Amino acid sequence: MVTFWKILLVLTAAGGGGALATAAHIPLGWLIGALLVSTGFTLAGMTIRIDRIRAYGLVVLGLSLGQSFTPEIMAQLIAYLPLILACGLFTLLSGLLFTGLFTKGAELDASTAFFCTIPGGVVLMAVQAQRAGASEAHVVLAQTVRLGVVVLSYPVLLHVFLPDHTRDAVAAAVGGTQAYTPADLLWVALLLAGGVGVAHLARRSFLPNPWMIAPCLFAIALQQTDLDPVTLPHWIVTVCQIILGVSLGARMVPDFLRRSLRLVVVSAVSTLCLTVLLVLAALAMARISTMDEAALLFGMSPGGMPEMTVAARAMGVSVPLVLSFHLTRILLANLMLEPFWHILSRLLARCGAKP
């Protein structure tokens, strides 16, 4: 019971922080406000565990994002597939440029540094680091710091480079709410139940992040039929932003942060450097292709899939395009990173370096 009231207190305070940040016209205010408030609670010594709440929040988020994939959008994505693959591969490999910062600046071994610097997602990088014999704790911390820096910086970058998207997002946010009939609410309930069901089934599959991807694929499949599902209420996106913000802030445990201060600094610096590189690459790619600049900016970002797709929706960026970039990058990371590291470690061993 104490845990319930503690979580309720944190979520309520985080929602208040999100409301204040949104009222102050901070980009992605609900998520950023919740992140800052929950970080404050964590640094004050409170342990926050909302893994189960986050999982069901991801189910709702996956359904909501999947509803964006109309047949017309799917045809467009197929046409862009070669570009999406190339950008996904570039984003993953670009992290290697900053491996030296982790080996020298944070004094990590090459294996741990490799999985710290690759922008492949917190959970995926932690699992692969464990298999490779690297320090899972250091990888989780580095990847978490990377997510925090990206979430805080990318909405600002979009506002600076593409202000029209920010203005459109604000206009859409104040444009009114949709009225739901009892039949609509019944459909929403059935859709949510279906999303939870497929997520539980997908937990036994090979899918990374099944809580989000399986419901998303379920909603995409519905969109390709003659069914015309009701769009999930707008407030759900707001709730997801608060939950994601709290889950990110909950990882900022003070003891480990103090013991790994150099790693925190190196992670933040490398993320900023990587962000500059990928922003320039995205803007250059937009010049030579017909894809939307904002979609490229968010699609090639080194952030996590849930965070960046929520940010894309909140900032008026094409969700299907951004989600396709991040799904492709996750699949590439699953398929190639472990074999690539084994080959690289053998080369390092032959050169006399410690893998």
Automatic annotation (TrEMBL):
What is the source species? Thioclava kandeliae
- Residue ranges crossing the lipid bilayer per the database entry: 31-48, 77-98, 110-127, 139-162, 185-202, 209-226, 232-251, 263-290, 310-332
Keyword Transmembrane in the entry? The reply is: yes
Task: Tell me the protein's name.
Answer: AbrB family transcriptional regulator
The upper taxonomy is: Bacteria, Pseudomonadati, Pseudomonadota, Alphaproteobacteria, Rhodobacterales
Signal peptide span: none
Organism domain of life: Bacteria
List UniProt keywords, sorted A-Z: Membrane, Transmembrane, Transmembrane helix
Coiled coil (UniProt feature): none
Query: A Pfam family this protein belongs to?
Result: AbrB
